[in-house]
Amino acid sequence: xxxxxxxxxxxxxxxxxxxxxxxxxxxxxxxxxxxxxxxxxxxxxxxxxxxxxxxxxxxxxxxxxxxxxxxxxxxxxxxxxxxxxxxxxxxxxxxxxxxxxxxxxxxxxxxxxxxxxxxxxxxxxxxxxxxxxxxxxxxxxxxxxxxxxxxxxxxxxxxxxxxxxxxxxxxxxxxxxxxxxxxxxxxxxxxxxxxxxxxxxxxxxxxxxxxxxxxxxxxxxxxxxxxxxxxxxxxxxxxxxxxxxxxxxxxxxxxxxxxxxxxxxxxxxxxxxxxxxxxxxxxxxxxxxxxxxxxxxxxxxxxxxxxxxxxxxxxxxxxxxxxxxxxxxxxxxxxxxxxxxxxxxxxxxxxxxxxxxxxxxxxxxxxxxxxxxxxxxxxxxxxxxxxxxxxxxxxxxxxxxxxxxxxxxxxxxxxxxxxxxxxxxxxxxxxxxx
Length: 434
Description:
Rossmann fold; 2 domains; four-stranded mixed beta sheet; Dihydrodipicolinate Reductase, domain 2
């Protein structure tokens, strides 16, 4: 494959300077300065086995795949509030005052550009720091100018864009999304079915910048944007970072299925109080998240293939906005299972997690892998990164893989393939020939 080494500065462009993005920036600064280990980051802490087990070759992924160095990352952002990243992080209340103070210099450098925003798509949020233009094409062109200015000011050699902003209302693909030509005409015509996140994706790809979507929004999962990604030769991926409750589901469900244990019901409820919780308190935004969170079980358990075990599974998901909890989300799962001779059992999970602490290393990994895919000239949907998403994008003829262990195998095998190493299939006798 064509491959370019990671030379120069890598720009990280983030729509949404909130809890997740500020936690990412502060964490990267702490790692660079030796104040913290990169816990939760596969790219920084993970290893990859090469060849047979007897060869004892397991380098760090970041060294094996020649990933960009953290010191070469430069951050830029857009937001509907004018607060720099330090003030935004202080308001988000994810990090301690001590950790914030240590990262103050790095955070204060990141001052948001005016955002493209439409309150019709995020009903429970609004702010004064917004772009205004005659139509959506003009807004896209303003974003392209922002990217050019960021590139020039920071002397970056390449950039990636990753959506860390709010969940938009639920919409389905329509005619305006069906081709690039219709989409561009829709931008000119101010078509109401083109969401702000789609304008960011369009602007990024037109500027030579990969776009990854961390929310459950439709965004890049439409024919028009996929067409543009292929036309420009750029990678895209999404959607919805796999952090708390869905992470647990994609760990537990494959285990239950591997033992052929039945699942009768799976009830999931969450309480959280950050900006994400406030946005999801609107039913139209919640539906977008609900669709993303509910899809994993059906694909993992395959009820059509195992009807005796999963055909009648009752799956319920709830998210409740509870301001006192802040970013410290709590997710409860009640799982009703059955085993030999139909005897019933239960599993109870109470995951007291921190949303942004789980999301920040995902964003870091995706940024570095987006850059890797860009340098390897991998265009279109990057299905090998499904590991990081609740609702992974795939080509239309395929179903998404949700089993986290299969996802990890695919990710590592893709890295081996990219670097010219033999794929690991776990077949054959690794100690003897024949």
